[in-house]
Amino acid sequence: MSRFVDRVTLHVSAGKGGNGCSSVHREKFKPLGGPDGGNGGRGGDVVLVVDPSVHTLLDFHFHSHAKAGNGTQGAGSNRDGAVGEDLILGVPDGTMVLDSDGRILADLVGEGTRFDAAAGGRGGLGNAALASRARKAPGFALLGEDGVERDLVLELKSVADVGLVGFPSAGKSSLVSVLSAAKPKIADYPFTTLVPNLGVVSSGDTTFTVADVPGLIPGASQGKGLGLDFLRHLERCAVLAHVVDCATLDPGRDPVSDVDALEAELAAYTPALSSDAGLGELADRPRIVVLNKVDVPEAQELADMVREDFEARGWPVFAISAVSREGLRPLTFALAELVAQYRIDHPKAVARRQVIRPVATDKAGFSVISDPDEPGGFIVRGERPERWVMQTAFDNDEAVGYLADRLARLGVEAELVKQGAQPGASVTIGDVSFEWEPQTPAGVDVTMTGRGTDSRIDQVERIGAPERKHARRVRRGLESDEQ
Description:
483 residues; six-stranded mixed β-sheet; GTP-bd; hydrolase; hydrolase activity
């Protein structure tokens, strides 16, 4: 038996970009044919797309991790790596996407609506793309970037034209079953309906959908009963129909008090609405009162008594019986008329172009702050420095020298000098910490040496950390000078 799931947490992981290739063209009579390493392929994206054949988030409940394909590494002869395969995930119409902090990222309504849940990492440049006047045949390539990983909350809000609201066992599921071809579970005990049921109704030239929401009770907007989990399914309904049980045997209930209690819960839930597809607050939606079970004589008498009270509020009132089907035809025509009027007042929105708004950043593109955990140390923050560090293979001296040039051109080294950084100071960028060497002339023309090496790194004459540690232990008498 299928299950209805309308809220899940999904962990999405975009694909990693492929590494660039470091290669030199080799051909007979051309010993130095120049660099020909290709770029790495971009990682695949994770994309959510509204699919009309998907009606629940059940698949994500059992498979909560989604990962796109990785890009492949570049190759020689200027061959770029293959692009990672995008992962397309179908979601039901009416799915809302939130981040882990509860901020709304997307409201997916309408077939084919897309949302890029996670962007794939960029592929690393090969040495052919890194060649310049200073580096005619680079002996290194850039590493591919990791794809975006994050947790998303998917929340389904049923897209229905008419929402049936009522106490448990008021006859909402029975009404859906006789108005449409839907066959929900029906029983004579409270909370029989545990999931929203949708049915399609045709009346003349108008076709609309009806959804019954599991029974609401006083306190539902604060989490009592089942109402809190399913109140959101009313947010997209253009018309609300109060289904009232006129044959209830509960002495403490009557149709007027039932409707007043439901209205109080709808009003209490309104502040929780952050996006309702432009329908406005629940309190402003058109209302219809359906007095059900009038096939019982006492229920018919009660319906006649309370009709004037509801009509005084300006609400159309219909006395029906879902069992004998009495009064269903006028009710169907009235619902179709309200839905048709809503569609006239709210024409379907025309698809708009996607608007891309660049994120504002500071002019420098980075910031330097003191490291609270390392005396005399500094932390460099910024999208570009952190991305450059991730792209660097630190086992290649030439790649490290290229990173130093990029940071110097950006102004990181000048900012460190301005803030009083001393030689050997610990500098952290992203997840990498290193000792700052201001004597290394970053940004100047590179003297040609062997591939994968950088002569500037070997020119540093300052005593390194191992030598300083040994000298300190000698002064303390813990080691001999000969060691």
